[in-house]
Inverse folding.
């Protein structure tokens, strides 16, 4: 687990390029504090920061083959490297290390870009092929590990984090202002673009060949549903149980101690439990909650703000750890700690992300990093097995879609012109295809709200158009499957890599902690893609077969049947306190806010939220937590990368 950087060397001599790539690598030292390495010649400069997990004394990078014609930097873990190594040794390749990186080196020699489809694991890879004078970049099929690039003429800059690009004197740092409407609707970037102009994310399951100034991108893996209705629910539950247990065991390969996050929900509980069954000496687990001490009134507000959803899961995590015989440690985050860390969180994120759940992930990673170097977590279970409430949402729309589209379109057009009323958003979202009903496209701001908040934006804002390519692809890859299956597919190719995996990687690596995700595994995915819809989502159940798998393991019914909950935060209540109100008011009235947003609209949202009475329907309708937080996170991100704070990140290497 590491980080890498690089660029094609078209501007400067070797000495200057070496200084630049060193500066770039130093910007992401948190990804690899244990070691560094560089490869620089007339064609390319490659830098590497290492977090040593496997083959601690060997496996230094950049790593080359025997004649130096292949040079590799690699971030991630390959869980089938031992099988691939045996195959390559049978072909005559000789190995000098005991790690997984050399498998990629010789695998590329043997199979070229065909090596990527053989890898089981999480990875971002950069390969310099000296014989072909070409650079090859690749990213794992889920997008667990990050990989960014900027292409301008003969120059390609790439790296694990965009902040490393700031060290390159030729990097043009510009805001991608046109992406703001998409961010406001989704809270993340729904496609390969970023908020930095002309900086892109490598699409998961794809590789790039960069040669003679031309970049060619190809797909090496496509998620494809192949539903198998020959098995019943309980048989699928047994298959899931066994497959996931094997994945957890594979993800335990390490030469350092490994622990697990534990939220109290079914996903992380399954990962922690399986680990515990594999280790007689016990497994360390780590949980996070909130310090909401204060008056009874504050506590009552917190309960009401959650609409019967608990404020945190510490009690559940502690109870499960005791039942499973796990050694659990936890941390409680105060309101001030939560607010103070936002600029740091957004700096590590690289891209503005309005998900409040990133912050507890930051603090639990900080806690775990004091005890272990690697943790497993439960990310991916909801996307693969049908856990999110938006799938039930689409379940309702699947019934509404039986109404002729022309009637739905007319109803949606009328609803959009009317003042808010119960069912208005449903009518608007149901007026088109599944891409329009997709809840993530208006998770924060509905499309008719964007012109109100965004300065100088005349619209129209049609976020479903950003989703449509994903849904068109979903129709093919699901074999024309139902709307729930299509929505899961879209989540897997957009929300999962660009939100879930983004924050999981950045918040853990901010503390030099490797986070592994055994649900996001080729073998687990293969099972998930065969599950009939009613083994995933029904009128009464989510993650139905996965919950039955937990029951087959003997899980307490409370855990196996626990309803899906978000990574809960008390933000709704905290935004009514003086601390939050004044801090956010300062941001909402700043020069940056005046540049991008309608400040009067921002302040009305903030004031309405502060005065909202949780006990009434009218009061609850004024709650704007996600809208407020989304804008606030963008302003914090903008200050870090484009405001006064950004001056400290200027390139160290000065060139003419």
């Amino acid at each position: 687990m590491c980080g890498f950087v690089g660029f094609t060397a078209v501007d400067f001599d070797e000495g200057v390029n070496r200084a630049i790539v060193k500066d770039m690598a130093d910007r992401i030292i948190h990804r690899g504090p244990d070691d560094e390495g560089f490869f620089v010649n007339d064609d390319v400069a490659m830098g590497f920061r290492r977090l040593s997990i496997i083959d601690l004394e060997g496996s230094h990078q950049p790593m080359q083959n025997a004649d130096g014609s292949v040079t590799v930097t690699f971030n991630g873990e390959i869980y089938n490297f031992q099988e691939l190594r045996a195959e390559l040794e049978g072909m005559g390749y000789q190995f000098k290390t005991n790690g997984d990186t050399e498998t990629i080196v010789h695998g590329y020699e043997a199979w070229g870009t065909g090596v990527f489809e053989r890898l089981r694991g999480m990875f971002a890879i950069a390969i310099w092929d000296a014989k072909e004078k070409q650079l090859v970049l690749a990213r794992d099929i889920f997008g667990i590990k990050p990989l960014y690039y900027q292409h301008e003429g003969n120059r390609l800059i790439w790296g694990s984090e965009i902040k490393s690009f700031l060290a390159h004197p030729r990097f043009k740092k510009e805001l991608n202002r046109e992406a703001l409407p998409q961010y406001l609707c989704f809270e993340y970037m729904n496609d390969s673009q970023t908020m930095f102009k002309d900086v892109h994310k490598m699409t998961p399951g794809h590789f790039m060949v960069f040669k003679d100034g031309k970049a060619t991108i190809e797909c090496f893996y496509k998620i494809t549903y192949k539903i198998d209705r020959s098995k019943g629910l309980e048989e699928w539950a047994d298959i899931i149980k066994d497959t996931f247990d094997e994945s957890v065991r594979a993800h335990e390969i390490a030469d350092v101690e490994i622990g697990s996050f534990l939220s109290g929900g079914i996903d992380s509980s399954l990962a922690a439990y399986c680990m515990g069954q594999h280790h007689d000496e016990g497994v360390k687990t780590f949980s996070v909650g909130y310090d909401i001490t204060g008056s009874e009134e504050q506590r009552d507000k917190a309960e009401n703000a959650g609409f019967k959803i608990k404020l945190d899961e510490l009690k559940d995590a502690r109870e499960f750890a005791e039942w499973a015989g796990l050694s659990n440690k936890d941390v409680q985050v105060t309101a001030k700690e939560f607010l103070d860390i936002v600029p740091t969180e957004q700096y590590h994120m690289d891209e503005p992300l309005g998900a409040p759940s990133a912050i507890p992930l930051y603090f639990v990673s900080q806690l775990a990093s004091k005890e272990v170097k690697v943790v497993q977590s439960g990310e991916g279970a909801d996307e693969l097995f049908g856990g999110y409430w938006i799938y039930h949402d689409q379940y309702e729309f699947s019934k509404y879609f039986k109404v002729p589209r022309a009637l739905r379109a007319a109803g949606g057009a009328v609803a959009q012109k009317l003042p808010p009323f119960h069912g208005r958003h449903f009518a608007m979202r149901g007026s088109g295809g599944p891409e329009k009903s997709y809840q993530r496209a208006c998770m924060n701001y509905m499309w008719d709200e964007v012109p109100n908040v965004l300065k100088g934006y005349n619209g129209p804002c049609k976020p479903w158009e950003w989703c449509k390519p994903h849904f068109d692809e979903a129709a093919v890859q699901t074999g024309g499957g139902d709307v729930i299956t299509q929505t899961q597919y879209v989540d897997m190719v957009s929300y999962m890599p660009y939100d879930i995996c983004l924050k999981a990687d950045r918040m853990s690596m901010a503390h030099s902690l490797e986070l592994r995700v055994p649900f996001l595994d080729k073998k687990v995915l293969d099972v998930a893609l065969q599950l009939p819809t009613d083994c995933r989502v029904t009128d009464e159940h989510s993650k139905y077969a996965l919950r039955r798998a937990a029951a087959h393991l003997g899980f307490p019914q409370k855990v196996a049947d626990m309803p899906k909950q978000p990574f809960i935060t008390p933000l709704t209540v905290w935004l009514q306190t003086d601390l939050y109100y004044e801090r956010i008011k300062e941001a909402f009235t700043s020069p940056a806010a005046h540049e991008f947003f309608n400040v009067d609209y921002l302040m009305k949202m903030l004031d309405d939220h502060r005065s909202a009475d949780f006990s009434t329907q009218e009061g609850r309708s004024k709650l704007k937590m996600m809208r407020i937080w989304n804008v606030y996170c963008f302003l914090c991100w903008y200050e870090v990368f484009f405001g006064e704070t950004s001056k400290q990140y200027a390139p160290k290497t000065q060139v003419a």
Remarks:
- The longest helix spans residues 483-509.
